[in-house]
Design a protein that fits this description.
alpha/beta, seven-stranded mixed beta sheet
Length: 188
């Protein structure tokens, strides 16, 4: 089974925030592939089904962003998943303009506390990830305030398209591997 985890914070208060972009991609995948997201296991809302013929578990940790690794680590351990080949983590990234995605096979947390917590709980930074770019924080802004804020109207439509592209990239990664997904979806 392949685990696809989208990062975010639980509750309607955070629903449309930049930090919940990973949840938005999971919701899109669940809708496209008719995967019901309701089971509450391992401190996460999960759904199982097939994406392009591959058995998957979609995961939305309910531990809040900075403790995402508690839930994901529990799932990886319980299902005996190899993070390098059977886990994909989708999350927001503030290093590039809204609308871009970056797929990587491994890497550091890059300052993202949710990813830092996952690395700590898995004991490795070697796992595929899709970074959904939400734009750099404006000068003088607190990073937490920025990522917990919503998109301006002019970026919201672009982010819907970006979440759609990230969902397509996730499906391609499942069937053809991370190298093909990186070649097709990482913008140059």
């Amino acid at each position: 089974m392949f685990i696809i985890a989208g990062l975010g914070n639980p509750g309607s208060r955070y629903e449309k925030t930049r930090h919940n972009t990973g949840f938005r991609v999971i919701d899109r995948l669940a809708g496209q592939y008719h995967i019901e997201m309701k089971l509450n296991r391992h401190r996460a809302i999960v759904g199982t089904g097939l994406i392009e013929g591959v058995k998957v578990m979609l995961v939305k940790p309910q531990t809040y962003m900075n403790a995402s690794g508690e839930s994901i680590g529990e799932i990886v351990d319980f299902y005996k998943v190899d993070p390098e080949t059977e886990l994909l983590v989708i999350f927001d990234d503030v290093s590039l303009e809204p609308g871009q995605i970056r797929i990587r096979k491994k890497g550091s947390a890059g300052g993202h506390n949710g990813v830092k917590n996952i690395i700590a709980h898995l004991g490795t930074q070697v796992f595929p990830r899709i970074k959904v770019c939400v734009g750099e924080k404006p000068a003088g802004w607190d990073l937490a305030d920025y990522v917990l804020g919503t998109f301006p109207k002019e970026d919201e439509e672009r982010m819907e398209e970006t979440c759609e592209r990230a969902a397509r990239a996730a499906a391609l990664l499942l069937t053809d591997g991370p190298d093909k997904a990186m070649n097709d979806f990482n913008q140059r």
